[in-house]
Design brief:
- The protein has 369 residues and is an alpha/beta fold.
- It has two domains: 189 residues, no CATH class; 156 residues, Rossmann fold (3-Layer(aba) Sandwich), CATH 3.40.50.
- The protein is 39% helix and 21% strand.
- The protein has a six-stranded mixed sheet with strand order 5-4-1-3-2-13. A six-stranded parallel sheet has the order 8-7-6-9-10-11, sandwiched between helices.
- Helix 11 crosses helix 12.
- It is globular.
- The chain starts with a strand and ends in a 9-residue tail after the last helix.
Length: 369
C-alpha cells in the first residue's frame, strides 16, 4: 500500500478560530502571534483511496501559518515550519508528501523542502493544471463558447502554473492573451510559445483591459487579495479560479448572474476514501494537488514530481495518464465552497444571452419624442 502525507494550513485566521474554539477569545493579531510557534500537527488519517491498480493511505499534516504570514514572515522561518511538517509526514510512514495551497508557492516551490527530507515531494501542480484546463473546457462548452475561436486569457501567466497552462492552451486556441506584472517575463513566455506551438500570443500588464475583452479566463496568481471584480468581466464570460486565496471577488458571483465562475481542481477520488477532515468539499472529493499526491503513492512513484517553477507540458500529459489509469476524474464544478449544477450554468447562459439581446435591441422611441 502506498503511503503519503499532505500539508495543509489555514487560509485565513478565522479558520483557526473555527477549528479551535478557544481561539475565538483572542484578537486576530494576538492569535497570529501564537500560531506561528505551534508545531506541525497530524490533523487526520486518510483511508480508503483505492483503484484497480493500487491503494494508498495518508495523513493531513497541519502547518499553522496563514498565507499572509507565509508572505510576510522571514522566508527561512516559513520554510523551517514546512520542513517540520514534511518530516512529521515522514515519521508517520509517508513516502511522498504533497505541499498544499501556499506551502507550494513560498520560496522555490518545494525544491528546498525536498532537499531537507528523506521522502519525495510534490506540489501537486501538474494535476492542478490538468483539471483546471479540463474544467475550463467543459464549462466553456456548456456556456456555448467555442474555445478555439474565443478570446482566452491566462492571468498570472508567468508563474509555474500559469506558464504551463498557457503552453497547453496554445495547442488548442487561436486567440490567447497572457497577463502578468513583468513585461519582460511575459515576452519571454510568448517567445517560447511561438517557438513550440507557432502561436502568436498577446502580452498584457493591463489586467482590467484584458478582462473586459476575454470570453474565457484562467486565473492563477499568488495575490493575497481578490483582483477580479464584477465590473471587470464581459457578459457570458467563464472564469476558472485556481488560486488560493481566490483571485475572484465573492461580489462577482453575488452580482453577476451572467458570468460563470468555477474553481479549478475539484477531483473525485477512486475507492471509498475518507479524509476524516472537512475542508468544504463533498465526500470522496479533493483538490487536484491532493489527488496528485495520492495517485503517485498508488503508483509507487516516490519521486519529486511537480517541483520548482519550470513545469512542462510532458508532466501534464503524464499526470493525465496516471489519473485515467487509476480512475481520478474531475467531479463537476464548484464555486465558493458549493456545487454548481448544470441547471445553474444554463441559467447563467440564458442571463448572458438575454443581456446580449437587450444590448443589440435598438431603443424604441414613442410618438412625439
Amino acid at each position: 500500500m502506498g503511503k503519503f502525507g499532505f500539508i495543509i494550513h489555514p487560509l485565513d485566521i478565522s479558520d483557526v478560530s473555527r477549528k479551535f474554539k478557544v481561539a475565538k477569545y483572542f484578537p486576530d493579531s494576538v492569535l497570529e502571534g501564537i500560531i506561528k510557534y505551534v508545531p506541525a500537527i497530524e490533523t487526520s488519517h486518510i483511508t480508503g483511496a483505492r483503484s484497480q491498480y493500487g491503494e494508498a493511505e495518508g495523513w493531513f499534516i497541519g502547518v499553522t501559518l496563514t498565507p499572509k504570514q507565509m508572505m510576510n514572515l522571514p522566508l527561512p522561518f516559513v520554510l523551517k515550519k514546512i520542513i517540520q511538517g514534511a518530516r512529521l509526514a515522514e515519521k508517520l510512514g509517508a513516502k511522498i508528501v504533497g505541499l498544499g495551497a501556499f506551502t507550494s508557492v513560498v520560496g522555490d516551490a518545494g525544491i528546498t523542502i525536498a532537499k531537507n527530507v528523506n521522502i519525495a515531494v510534490t506540489t501537486g501542480n501538474s494535476y492542478t493544471v490538468a483539471t483546471a484546463l479540463e474544467g475550463t473546457r467543459e464549462a466553456a462548452r456548456m456556456m456555448g463558447i467555442d474555445l478555439r475561436r474565443a478570446q482566452v486569457a491566462v492571468v498570472g501567466a508567468t508563474g509555474s502554473i500559469g506558464s504551463v497552462s498557457s503552453k497547453v492552451l496554445a495547442r488548442e486556441v487561436k486567440n490567447l492573451t497572457i497577463v502578468g506584472r513583468d513585461q519582460r517575463r511575459l515576452e519571454a513566455l510568448a517567445q517560447q510559445i511561438l517557438q513550440e506551438n507557432g502561436l502568436v500570443v498577446r502580452v498584457s500588464t493591463d489586467l482590467k483591459a484584458t478582462l473586459r475583452q476575454a470570453d474565457v479566463i484562467l486565473t492563477v496568481t499568488s495575490s493575497m487579495e481578490s483582483i477580479i471584480e464584477p465590473e471587470d468581466l464581459k457578459s457570458g464570460a467563464v472564469v476558472c479560479d485556481v488560486s488560493r486565496p481566490r483571485d475572484v471577488s465573492r461580489r462577482v458571483v453575488d452580482e453577476r448572474k451572467d458570468v460563470l465562475v468555477i474553481e479549478g481542481g475539484v477531483v473525485e477520488v477512486p475507492g471509498d476514501v475518507d479524509f476524516h477532515f472537512n475542508f468544504g468539499f463533498p465526500p470522496k472529493t479533493s483538490y487536484a494537488c491532493m489527488a496528485e499526491t495520492m495517485m503517485l503513492a498508488m503508483e509507487g512513484r516516490y519521486e519529486n514530481f511537480s517541483l520548482g517553477r519550470d513545469m512542462t507540458v510532458a508532466q501534464i500529459d503524464e499526470i493525465n495518464r496516471l489519473a485515467k489509469k487509476h480512475g481520478f476524474r474531475v467531479a463537476g464544478f464548484r464555486s465558493f465552497e458549493r456545487a454548481v449544477t448544470r441547471e445553474e450554468i444554463e441559467a447563467v447562459r440564458r442571463n448572458a444571452e438575454k443581456k446580449l439581446h437587450l444590448s443589440l435591441t435598438p431603443e424604441v422611441k414613442t410618438a412625439g419624442s
